[in-house]
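Lab manual, section 2.4: Encoding a predicted structure.

Procedure: take the sequence of the chain (999 residues), apply the prediction step described in section 2.3, and record the output as structure tokens. A sample record is shown.
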Amino acid sequence: MSTQPAVLLIFVVVLLAGAATPARGFYLPGVAPADFRRKDALAVKVSQLSSTKTQLPYSYYSLPFCRPDAIVDSAENLGELLRGDRIENTPYVFEMREPRMCQIVCKTAFTQEGANDVKEKIDDDYRINMILDNLPLVVPIKRMEKDAPTVYQHGVHVGVKGQYSGSKKEKHFIHNHLTFLVKYHRDAEMDFARIVAFEVKPFSVKHEYDGDWKGNATRLKTCDPHSRQLVLDSDSPQEVEANKEIIFSYDVNFEESEIKRASRWDTYLLMTDDQIHWFSIVNSLMIVLFLSGMVAMIMLRTLYRYITKYNQLDVEEDAQEETGWKLVHGDVFRPPVRAELLCVYVGTAVQFLGMLLVTLLFAILGLLSPSNRGGLMTAMLLSWVFMGLLAGYSSARLYKKDALAVKVSQLSSTKTQLPYSYYSLPFCRPDAIVDSAENLGELLRGDRIENTPYVFEMREPRLCQIVCKTSFTQEGANDVKEKIDDDYRINMILDNLPLVVPIKRMDKDAPTVYQHGVHVGVKGQYSGSKEEKHFIHNHLTFLVKYHRDAETDLARIVAFEVKPFSVKHEYDGDWKGNATRLKTCDPHSRQLVLDSDSPQEVEANKDIIFSYDVNFEESDIKWSSCWDTYLLMTDDQIHWFSIINSLMIVLFLSGMVAMIMLWTLYRDITKYNQLDVEEDAQEETGWKLVHGDVFRPPANAELLCVYVGTGVQLFGMLLFAILGLLSPSNRGGLMTAMLLSWVFMGLLAGYSSAHLYKVFKGSEWKKVTMKTATMFPGIVFAIFFVLNALIWGERSSGAVPFTTMSALVLLWFGISVPLVFVGSYHGFKKHPATEDLVRTNKIPRPIPEQPWYMHLAVLVLIGGVLPFGAVFIELFFILTSIWLHQFYYIFGFLFLVFVILVLTCAEITVVLCYFQLCGKDYRWWWRSYLTAGSSAVYLFLYAGFYFFTKLDITKAVSGLLYFGYMLIASYAFFVLTGTVGFYACFWFTRLIYSSVKID
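Recorded output:
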């Protein structure tokens, strides 16, 4: 019996067991209902403290809140653990449908540390996420607009900041009184009730009471239902102070609701913009189906003709005279170069595809309810693990006591965005600095990969190894201090793996966070002093993790970590170079560097000793998975949801718009073709009446040809880049590939611009060709040159050297420009012109007055909204990877979003073009380009929003660099999307005017 069915059966069982919570009856996992009788106990649970400011979840009991007699953790799955959920019980316990007022939870007093923790959480807008019957707690917020739906905030804030009346000093007030509202749906026959909503209104109240404290039986003066003294506001708030009593209390009310339990999650899953999502999905779906059918028909027809012709050949001599794909049959299955690497990518892709398909299947079947916390992530992880049966692995280098040389690429900072060479600071140098081979992309990124004096042997631990002793000049000390102020990090490399600093999270069992690069140093104060000093990290403790082959004893490096310390080293006697025995770091006397209690201050003309330790640790991580640490997406669940959501929206929008367009066009074409006389046609209205002007060449036709050709060139370049064929371990490979593909796509640019110019009956094709080859690159090069001059003025290694600039110019004029001319020659001279479907009138038809919403500015602004809306979520991740120095390697998502962008641009342009033609306005050429291209305006505005909300850039030069590069990106986005919109409208107009009879 085959083992494959058994393996798959085990996989499905484990996946369901891991992703689902226990269920009853025939309910899907995680959504089994709970029936409550009157006076049944209801226990409120808490999952975590969360903040959108810090994105760092904390346990509820990390703050000094009231605790139950025993804290019990609820059963959690793997997905919940990865999300940071720690579901625990609370002292908030009451009975079903039994309202309670002014219930005391506890009386407590914060220590100084506890009060500081609470204040910090209030500053960071932390919220308490509670749960009742698997429903999260929400705070209803009434909108100011009339009849506007209520907005629900997830979680209740720990507290608020404010001032007392007449004072300007800001205080922290804690929400110590919660008014719960439990909504339920009741079965009239059985008197059972099911909870359908869990709401709260938080208050800050400084409680008072008379007499002695009697625990929960104490009668409060500030909240007493017997005297009708209820908590309705926070006029007398409870300030967060150390060693002051705070009384926590709550009310609970119950309200019968018409909402059924099956619909209770609608409040949490409500999409405020659902209409536009549906519209975009149908739109995109119909475009995809239409394009797929058109391409399939072309492919089938062409291949059928070829196969028929080849099968009719009777003799070998005839076959030899033929050309085409049949003649390479003897070589087509020859193994390729680097076959092992191809196997690696194919196996990993199959594993990834299997994970996606299984996860999506479970999601579509409804087995991953949002009430089942962590279910989606658990299912993805388990499916990825089991899909490893379909994947393989490969490795590159093997070591056995070989020399390991640490290299360094650059000093980088998210504050300044200006990279510097490692040796721009007075660090220890090797005998000879050797630059590693660099590609063009590395040079443009500012990488200068050089060797370092950190050299050791594989699996040979070393402690307290001296690198050098040096002293900084005044200028050198100032440079180091400046880099410390700007949070610069040293980016080192070992076996092509970047150096990371593991950072333990405060939460128990939280996964380790990895910081890319090690900081040059830190700022701090000596004990008892308020003067801020700069301390350098002069001792590095490396940890090299390796995966060992048990049979051959060969090892493969899978991780390169470091812990930095600042140590003021001391030694006895004379300095003997690297053989000197340090008093502050001596393995013989068990004196190791474990902290920075005696730090090394950055001072001019003072000796600084640089040292390091290196340890080796065997790891279960295989070499094929060693990049997982660097490519980890912490917000993958949101990412998945947004991508799938956007895709479905676009597909639905495409389908809906396409159905409307096909129905309308079919009616129009049928009606026009039934007209027998010209007089009847003249009485008609609509897009047919402008047939004599619709193909009239536009104003500035040459410029339009130039931009269309450039857009085709950009399209080809990006299509290659987003396929994800280049590993992040190949530094600069993506940028190099993009530049080279841009150069060779000049063929398509020249062909497209010249052929369109021929459609316009132009004659000066060489002039158009030269503009196509130089206009867009020239504008980009001019901006880039100015930005490079600014970088050069800052003495940053990010400045492109003169030789590299010369190489770029050589690629431009030596290869790209000639290729553009070659393409233009074929497009203008060799390829026949596209004939106009109707004769253009000699006298232009007058254009009637258009309503305000059909004006150019309005249509252009409207047209750019949908394309930008389809990509702005992915744009956030791309900007984060670029400006926060993170790796981006989810090219599958990027390709999907690119397809959505193209379809959305085409769809919105066709729709607006149709409305324009129906309004007897035939000036569609430029408008079709600007309609889709206007999405670049929104992109640039979003870049400004991202700059002010997400980045900590402080220098003016860095800000100019950011907006300069984003201006280039927006300009390219304008050209790309405009070209897509133009060709969509061009195809559409030719299609509809070819379908009617023109007299």
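Check your result against the sample. The two ends are 74 Å apart (CA to CA).
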